[in-house]
Amino acid sequence: MNAIPYTVERRPDTGVNNVQLGMWLFIASEVMLFGGLFSAYFTLRAGAPSPWLPLRDHLAGAIAATIPLLAGTALTATTVRRLDRYRLSLALAVILALSFCAWKALEYQELFRAGHSPASSTLMATFFLLTGVHVLHVLGGIAATVWIVLRGGAVPDRGPTINRLRALTRYWTFVDIVWLVLLVLLYVV
After folding, report:
1. Band of residue 178 on the pLDDT scale cut at 50, 70, 90
2. DSSP three-state, residue 10
3. CA angle (103 as vertex; 97, 107 as ends), nearest 5
4. Under 8 Å CB-to-CB from 41, ≥6 apart: which residues?
């Protein structure tokens, strides 16, 4: 059975292998998605009849939720150097990402109880849209991480596993950057 070329080796035309190239192209498409969403946010905010006030009363919770999200990405990044325990590290990263999702669910419940829903204002509609799309990306990252954990064996095939872990780390880094931008836009300024 022939292996697919450039799954681990670098392509001569791009300097990266197919997995890395695919991840960069996927991230580029996600940058365009979030770029459009951020453009809509700024346009709606600039045209609003009254100033959009940040959700500063939720800032402490947002910062507390940011810590496990960033820690999970850091843990994923370190698995490349510690393949002997990569499955445990990734499982912990999944738990950390799930804690971020749990915090968002609690925040949504609190906002709904206070009468803030997507239908209550353009600000809240934009807030729920931006954070909801981000949470979907966190859930996608969780699914990809679980897939890598389940696909790999106790003794991983070093090349492909490192390749997947590097691609996964790039994805989680992108998700973190988007969250940090959202944190500042929605909770601080």
Report:
1. very high
2. coil
3. 150
4. 126, 130, 185
Tokens of 73: 């990405």
Print burial letters for 145-184: b (CB count within 10 Å at least 16), e (below 16): beebbeebeeebeeebbbbbbbbbbbbbbbbbebbeebbe
| Token digits of residue 146 | 């679980």
- pLDDT tens digits, 106-133: 999 999 999 999 999 999 999 999 999 9
Side-chain-side CA neighbours of residue 106 (13 Å): 11
The closest alpha carbon to 146, from 98, 82, 74, 102, belongs to 98
A 10 A CB-CB count for 138 gives: 21
